[in-house]
Amino acid sequence: MRERPGTVVAAVVAVALLAVGCTAADGGGRERRVSPAPSAAPRERAPHRTLPGLPPDIARQRLAWKACSTEDAVRGGAALRPEADCAWLTVPVDYNAPDEHSIDLRVVRVRAPGRERRLGSLVFNPGGPGEAGAAMVAGGAFEATARVMDRYDLVGFDPRGVGRSAPLKCPQGTGGDLIPRTREQVDAEFRAAAEQGESCRRAGGRLLPHMDTVSVARDLDVLRAALGENRLNYLGISYGTYIGQHYAHLFPDRVGRFVLDGVVDPGTDQTRTARNDVKSLDDSFASYARACAALRCALGRTPGEIVATTTEFVRGLDAHPVPASGGGRLTTGLAVQGIRAPLYQSDRWPDLTRALLDAMAGRPDALIALAVEQVQVQTQEQGSDKAGSRDETPVDPTMARNAVDCLDKPGPRSTGELLADLGEFEKTSPLFGATVATAMFHCAAWPLAPTGRAEPLTAPGAPGMVLVSWSVDPATPLGNAEAVRKNLGTASLVVREGTGHSAYASGSDCTDAAVDAFLVGGRLPPPKVECSG
SS3 letters for 99-119? Predict the structure, then answer.
């Protein structure tokens, strides 16, 4: 983090619509031709006049691209793409006081090979909050389709407080690993969350109050200008769709071609979001159970039996945790996380079946490995900042997510509310409910009050966008995309049949054709496109 002006740099703590299995249908089920997008990706460059109120060295900056380092591709131990370039982008900590302090965000670019056919930059965010987009691009963990990569520079960035962008270094908490069910247990968990939140406030310094998504969206506009783009072309996944909606709401006249995949609904508060999460997880696990039963897996003869067997096992783990071979133990919360992770990708369902069967046989290591997989990746993504500072103190990588979530939307703020939610959620979903409700403890005890609101986001005057969703999504249900399409008014919705999270560039020719026709050709799909699984 840098003080402005002139003080020290201090270390602080990411074609045509013609494929087989693709149906473009209007409300009456009739096939429709792809219609032109309201706005194509323009080539003109006039960015600086669109950044009033910012210091000139921020408003007029150009990115100084250099070869990336191996640290820029730390995600999952990925190898660095040799064609990746890296740069630093300077943004204000507080956009209400942009002259006071600044931080540097890490940005990565993979250039389009055909410069004469280049359409511009396509900025990518993988979601989270807490995911480092720069590392995903630098290490090749994400690529758009070949047709899009041939026409756009793919640009990833680490949002403020994430990855190498002034990474937030919150100490690990001291909360228990069991689901709190009594008033005494809830009080103890609340105190532990409050202590960790206060530790995070001290570690986060002046950045923590400005980890909100509105600030990230404003960072995105600084990035647009520094890239020399008059309009922003953007691909956001999951939480990245929330950033994109805020950007479109703030800067509708600067929206280029926007694709929002795995859509977050800004109109739901923390409690409503958690309820939707529970239903999405139940629906996704039911899809898994049907597939497992069809393969005659050993978890049960019918989908209902598989759900019942798994639920009974998982709910009993807090009373009877299963010890792991390398130390530690499998508890209810850890088991739920282990189940949740592979639900995002149906090709990993066999891994889930094996892990559940092993755990039920007293060998929980595989299920625990699934549970901690994402945390390990986030830990690897917490790299050094621009000054090269790296603090080896053990940190909790999930706190960057909490820092964003707790500022963005209101939620429960008392132990009484939390205890009531626990009971309600567990009654609704015996398998997932209590664990999802427990996740709200961090924001209930967070030392900073929310600055955002749960409300629909509109973008009057913005060109049409493309929303993408699986028909069953364990993280962002299809209903989210339908609500956001209504909010935006001019968006098209591409629905991929099946269960998963993030449907573009993941094996569906139909989905990819619809999105690519928009990104490359500027052709907005019909209001609803349905793609078979």
Answer: CCEEEEEEEEEECCCCHHHCC
